[in-house]
Specification:
five-stranded mixed beta sheet; 2 helices; 18% strand
Length: 740
């Protein structure tokens, strides 16, 4: 008995601690479980302070959901084996900048949902070169120091949402070369610096929702060229500038003066002048101040060599943006080697042909001066010319110096072909203040699959606004207040499958407006206040399968309105003002594959013999609830003999004639709830041999003839609740063998 008790005590101890680790049981923090995989589970243990000590070989520690208010500089001392720690959902307000100095193997750090303010320094995350996950969401951070994440080169996920960060700088995210996800929603950014995301060349997911951002400019998203998902919804963006997702921009704003055009970055074009047989650079009229940026980036080199064969002319080499991590400078290198002498119109320093492989560091001179404000040291034995200036005003510039300054800022993108955001698949810019789209706004988004632009005050869609989105599959342009659009508004959308246009102000649909959408399968047009449509409004939509026209103000449907919709499967027209007088026997012509027709909540009074006579040979689901139907002609359903579910609830039907539904021999469900029926005569449901469910509740039925349910041999369920029945004839249900 004693030995058994001892065994039980040992087992109890093992269950308490999870295993024999640590060697000294007292090393396991109070209230926590220490497990054999060298992890500590202190989750939701009501801890009010961080443990004074933990086993030095702890690999994982979970302190989520406690009330720990602070950490000290020694909280994680000598914890070199620690790879993961979860401190989320505490009340941590104090986080010393050296608390992580010993946990250099840390891979995951959760600090979300605390009270941490702007106390981080460049030393806080120093040395954490293995960290892949960092969460700081839902704290009270208002600012982040420059280079705070500089050592986090392996980080893949950074959570900073729900803080109050106001003004991140171009150096805030420096060093995050492996980052794939950046969550920044619900902060106070307002604006985005041009180079804010420059070093995030691996970024795939960027969430900037709910920041109050007022504008975005061309080049803002050039650094993260691998971006796949970009969320800009619920901000205050007023305009999408031309080329905002394409870089370099093909336009430059001049003040004053019109917009001028720049060549693309892939073509720093040297062109041979046939008149002089010399190589000249294309002249670009630009008035701007160009400053050589001072900034640290990850080490990379981008070199472009351009050679033009011409008598007496040498090789022109533009070496752009050699940068070195760990310094605080960015250098734009431009070298021109010619057989002649330097000219005053060139805004680069030139050297003689005898100095091969010469390098001019941060060279930019004024086109209006023949002298360079710089110091030059020439070493002819090594062929190196070092020239330095910082700021230049250019009045008539050659593109080499101007574009090299631009490209110097984007050398984290190693491949020139990625100057467009060809990886982007999802873009959310809904719920902003955008009033108009420019035909160049979406240039460069060649592979965009999903675009949400809903809830922007755009009243008109101009021609070609989506012309570059040839691979777009889904487009939300709902709740814009849209009034006008034409067929040319959808130029380029040859792959579009889903189009959401509900909640606009489209009171009339003109003919042919959707003719460009040759791949469209679903179209949402409900809640537009639509009063009328042209007979050819849906021409060209030969692949359309679902059409939603509900909650409008349609009173009539023109003949042949749907004649091009041979593949349509579902048509929703509920919540309109349709009547039987507003349609004819040609209304449904062409709907050869229609499976479901929803006409709920309209104003039909009588179902005549022409209403469903033609055009829907395979219709299976017919919804007619909540109308004003008081009569049905004998042949009302003669043209829709394949209907399986017929819903006539909530109408004014007071009488059903003998054989009323005899054409519907495949009917499975029939709903007649909430009408004014007073009796069921013999053979009312004649020929309904496959009917499973019959709903007759909430009528005024007082009498049922003995043969009323003849032919209902497969009926499973009959509901006669809330009627005026006092007595039922004997054998009235005798044929209903399967009824429950």
């Amino acid at each position: 008995m004693t030995s058994s008790l001892a065994i039980l005590l040992v087992l109890s101890r093992l269950l308490t601690t999870g295993s024999a680790w640590p060697d000294v049981a007292s090393d396991c923090p109070t209230r926590c479980n220490c497990l054999s995989d060298k992890s500590i589970n202190c989750r939701a243990k009501k801890l009010t302070s961080f443990p004074a000590s933990m086993p030095a070989d702890t690999v994982e520690a979970d302190f989520f959901g406690n009330v720990i208010p602070s950490l000290s500089s020694t909280s994680l001392s000598n914890m070199a084996a620690l790879t993961e720690i979860n401190l989320g959902n505490n009340t941590i307000a104090t986080f010393p900048d050296d608390v992580l100095s010993d946990v250099t193997n840390l891979e995951s750090l959760e600090l979300g949902n605390n009270l941490i303010g702007s106390q981080f320094t460049v030393a806080t995350f120093q040395g954490l070169t293995k960290m892949t996950y960092l969460s700081l969401h839902n704290n009270t951070i208002t600012s982040l120091p420059d280079k705070v994440f500089l050592d986090l080169g392996a980080l893949e996920v950074l959570q900073l949402y729900r803080n109050s960060i106001t003004s991140p700088t171009e150096d805030t995210f420096l060093g995050l070369s492996s980052l794939k996800e950046l969550h920044l929603r619900y902060n106070l950014f307002r604006g985005l610096q041009d180079d804010l995301f420059l070093d995030l060349g691996s970024l795939e997911y960027l969430d900037l929702r709910n920041n109050g951002i007022t504008d975005i400019k061309c080049g803002t998203f050039f650094g993260p060229y691998r971006l796949r998902e970009l969320y800009l919804g619920s901000n205050s963006i007023k305009e999408l500038e031309p080329d905002v997702f394409h870089y370099p921009c093909d336009w430059v704003s001049t003040t004053p003066g019109p917009t001028t055009s720049l060549p693309t970055a892939g073509s720093l074009a040297t062109t041979a002048n046939p008149a002089t047989s010399q190589t000249t650079q294309a002249q670009i009229p630009v008035t701007s101040t160009i400053s050589t940026p001072s900034k640290t980036t990850s080490a990379s080199t981008s070199t472009r060599t351009e050679t033009t064969a011409s008598t007496g002319v040498g090789t022109s080499t533009s070496n752009v943006a050699t940068t070195t991590q760990g310094t605080d400078t960015r250098t734009s290198n431009v070298t021109t080697t010619t057989a002649g002498t330097a000219t005053g119109s060139s805004n680069v320093t030139t050297t003689t042909a005898g100095t091969d492989n010469s390098t001019s560091n941060a060279t930019a001179t004024s086109a209006t001066s023949n002298t360079s404000n710089s110091s030059t040291n020439t070493d002819t034995s090594t062929g190196t010319s070092n020239v330095t200036t910082t700021t230049t005003r250019v009045t008539t510039a050659t593109p080499t110096s101007f574009l090299s300054t631009l490209i110097a800022a984007v050398t984290t993108t190693p491949q020139p072909q990625q100057y467009t955001m060809t990886y982007l698949e999802k873009l959310y810019i809904n719920d902003n203040g955008i009033t108009e789209l420019n035909p160049q706004s979406f240039r460069g988004l060649d592979n965009l699959d999903f675009l949400h632009m809903g809830s922007n005050p755009i009243s008109t869609l101009h021609s070609d606004v989506f012309q570059y989105l040839t691979n777009l599959n889904t487009l939300y342009i709902n709740s814009l207040g849209l009034v006008n659009f034409t067929a040319d508004s959808f130029n380029g959308l040859t792959s579009l499958t889903y189009l959401y246009m509900q909640g606009n102000k489209l009171t009339h649909l003109d003919g042919g407006n959707f003719v460009r959408l040759v791949s469209l399968q679903r179209l949402w047009l409900h809640s537009n206040g639509m009063e009328s449509i042209d007979p050819d409004a849906f021409d060209g939509l030969t692949r359309l399968q679902y059409l939603y026209l509900s909650s409008n103000q349609l009173t009539a449907l023109p003949d042949y309105s749907f004649q091009d919709l041979a593949n349509l499967r579902s048509l929703s027209l509920e919540n309109n003002r349709l009547t039987e007088w507003g349609m004819s026997n040609e209304t449904w012509n062409g709907l050869d594959k229609l499976d479901s027709l929803n006409l709920k909540n309209n104003r039909f009074v009588c179902l005549n013999d022409s209403m469903f006579c033609c055009g829907m040979p395979v219709l299976r689901h017919l919804y007619l609830q909540n109308n004003r139907i008081s009569c049905m002609e004998a042949d009302a359903f003669e043209g829709v003999t394949k209907v399986r579910n017929l819903w006539l609830d909530n109408n004014d039907i007071s009488q059903l004639s003998e054989g009323q539904f005899e054409d519907l021999e495949l009917l499975h469900k029939l709903g007649l709830r909430n009408n004014e029926l007073t009796e069921l005569v013999n053979n009312t449901f004649q020929n309904l041999l496959t009917l499973d469910y019959l709903y007759l509740e909430n009528n005024d039925i007082a009498t049922i003839d003995t043969g009323a349910f003849n032919d209902l041999t497969d009926l499973d369920r009959l509901n006669l609740q809330n009627n005026d029945l006092a007595v039922l004839p004997s054998n009235v249900f005798s044929v209903c063998r399967t009824m429950t």
